[in-house]
């Protein structure tokens, strides 16, 4: 059947729009600005974490120099919280994590904990978590309209599409709660009423480990040095879980090129050299992302006009349910496109493990992990490391 001329013209205009956006990308990532830092690694043959690792440069706020006592009315703490989406049945794993983070950092600074759940927390959960910390603890329930699938999602299409994901061995594809969690972490967590006046957060999940003593206020560091986002681990995602995420992103950017940061991280997002099969299956996206089970972030970024418009576009497309778009690639793509690269920080000095991956620095402040060890398990896990791309295009800052 012949395609009507007006439709052909509209299609041509749409393609031209995408090409113009990609032209802007290529010029904004290779010229027109001074690349951040001088710490790029063109070919990572040796893990930077094998080198002696210290604290970030600059003036840092320390507990012994300022008042961080739990009940102080004049505390040096800024507007920030430790944030954990967790269920009652994960209590034991969470308490283990809390003990680690309290021992290595928070017992000095006493930042509050905010726990979120799609169900009410039990008295036992509250009791045991409060026993671990001197800091204040808040227990909040996720509003139902933030958690449930939006009305435009087709349940039958979800069932059929999830079968395809299962056939491709995509983890958690058959779990509705996982899809809801990914959507919530992508575009809802910063809208919770209890966080309305909170700016910075440190995301903490059950069953993770912290290995290094951190002796400065990381939230103050974020504020004082104008950082938007901090990460420890940088991975490839399964391309079969998000085949339309990048095409939808391109559609959005064709309509909103004004949101693209001049100093963006586009090359990291579209690299097709390190794992070309990923780029091909993900239709132009390298699948590189910050592993968001650890993130220290500024919620003002997620509350921005650019991010909110981007999330709403993705939400309408339905990929959180029809595919398995995770919050990690969504956060990472948004940061890589809309934020200045200099405002993203690698917390190389924070020793961290979420099975099976590590961030383990070479520092006398660390114990319990092997410096430079990236993974534990089968050798194929080594291929999931996207830091070489990040260090090549963005740097180790």
Lay out the secondary structure.
Layout: H1 5-30, E1 80-85, H2 91-109, E2 113-117, H3 123-130, E3 137-141, H4 144-147, H5 155-167, H6 176-187, E4 200-203, E5 209-210, H7 218-224, E6 229-231, E7 234-236, H8 245-255, H9 266-270, H10 276-281, E8 288-290, E9 295-298, H11 299-302, H12 305-317, H13 319-322, H14 327-338, E10 344-346, E11 352-354, E12 357-359, H15 387-393
Parallel strand pairs: 1-2, 1-4, 2-3, 6-10
Antiparallel strand pairs: 4-9, 5-11, 6-9, 7-8, 11-12
Helix pairs in contact: 1-8, 6-14, 8-12
GO biological process, one term: protein N-linked glycosylation
Protein name: Alpha-1,2-mannosyltransferase (Ktr4), putative
Family: Belongs to the glycosyltransferase 15 family.
Question: What are the defining features of this structure?
Answer:
397 residues, alpha/beta, Spore Coat Polysaccharide Biosynthesis Protein SpsA, Chain A, three-stranded antiparallel β-sheet, 15 helices, 11% strand, disordered N terminus
Task: Give the rounded overall mean pLDDT.
Answer: 92
Q: How many H/I helices?
A: 15
Largest sheet: 7 strands, mixed
Low-pLDDT windows of residues: 1-16, 18-37
Q: Kindly state the percentage of residues in helix.
A: 25-40%
Give the class-level CATH name: Alpha Beta
CATH fold description: Spore Coat Polysaccharide Biosynthesis Protein SpsA, Chain A
In angstroms, what separates the terminal alpha carbons? 55 Å
Q: Tally the structural domains.
A: 1
Return the CATH architecture: Alpha-Beta Complex
Q: Please compute the radius of gyration using only Cα atoms.
A: 21 Å
Strand order, main sheet: write it out.
3-2-1-4-9-6-10
Structural class category? alpha/beta
- Compute the number of strand runs: 12
Give the CATH H-level superfamily.
Answer: Spore Coat Polysaccharide Biosynthesis Protein SpsA, Chain A
Sequence of secondary-structure elements: HEHEHEHHHEEHEEHHHEEHHHHEEEH
Q: What overall form do the CA principal axes indicate?
A: globular
Q: What percent strand?
A: 5-15%
Keywords: Glycosyltransferase, Transferase
GO biological process, one term: cell wall mannoprotein biosynthetic process
Protein name: Alpha-1,2-mannosyltransferase (Ktr4), putative
GO molecular function, one term: GDP-Man:Man(3)GlcNAc(2)-PP-Dol alpha-1,2-mannosyltransferase activity
């Amino acid at each position: 059947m012949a395609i009507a001329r007006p439709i052909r013209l509209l299609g041509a205009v749409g393609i031209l729009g995408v090409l113009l956006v990609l032209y802007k990308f290529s010029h904004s990532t290779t010229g027109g600005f001074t690349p951040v830092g001088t710490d790029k690694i063109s070919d990572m043959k040796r893990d930077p974490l094998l080198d002696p690792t210290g604290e970030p440069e600059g003036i840092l706020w320390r507990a012994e120099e300022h008042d961080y006592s739990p009940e102080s009315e004049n505390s040096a703490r800024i507007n920030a919280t430790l944030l954990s989406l967790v269920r009652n049945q994960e209590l034991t794993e969470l308490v283990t994590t809390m003990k680690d983070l309290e021992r290595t950092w928070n017992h000095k600074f006493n930042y509050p904990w905010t726990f979120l759940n799609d169900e009410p927390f039990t008295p036992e959960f509250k009791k045991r978590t409060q026993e671990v910390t001197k800091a204040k603890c808040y227990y909040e329930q996720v509003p139902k309209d933030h958690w449930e699938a939006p009305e435009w999602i087709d349940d039958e299409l979800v069932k059929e599409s999830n079968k395809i994901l299962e056939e491709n061995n995509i983890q958690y594809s058959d779990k509705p709660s996982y899809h809801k969690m990914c959507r919530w972490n992508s575009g809802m967590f910063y809208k919770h009423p209890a966080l309305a006046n909170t700016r910075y957060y440190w995301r903490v999940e059950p069953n993770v480990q912290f290995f290094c003593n951190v002796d400065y206020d990381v939230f103050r560091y974020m504020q004082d040095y104008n950082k938007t986002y901090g990460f420890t681990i940088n991975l490839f995602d399964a391309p079969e879980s998000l085949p339309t995420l990048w095409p939808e992103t391109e559609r959005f950017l064709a309509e909103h090129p004004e949101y693209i940061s001049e100093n963006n991280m586009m090359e990291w997002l579209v690299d097709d050299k390190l794992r070309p099969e990923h780029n091909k299956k993900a239709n132009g996206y390298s699948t590189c992302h910050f592993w968001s089970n650890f993130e220290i972030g500024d919620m003002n970024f997620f509350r921005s006009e650019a991010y909110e418009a981007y999330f709403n576009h993705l939400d309408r497309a339905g990929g959180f349910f029809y595919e398995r778009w995770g919050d990690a690639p969504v956060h990472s793509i948004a940061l890589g496109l809309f934020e200045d690269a200099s405002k993203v920080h690698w917390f190389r000095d924070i020793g961290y493990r979420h099975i099976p991956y590590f961030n383990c620095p070479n520092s006398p402040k660390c114990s319990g992990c092997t410096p430079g060890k990236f993974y534990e398990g089968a050798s194929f896990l080594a291929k999931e490391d996207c830091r070489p791309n990040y260090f090549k295009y963005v740097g180790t800052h």
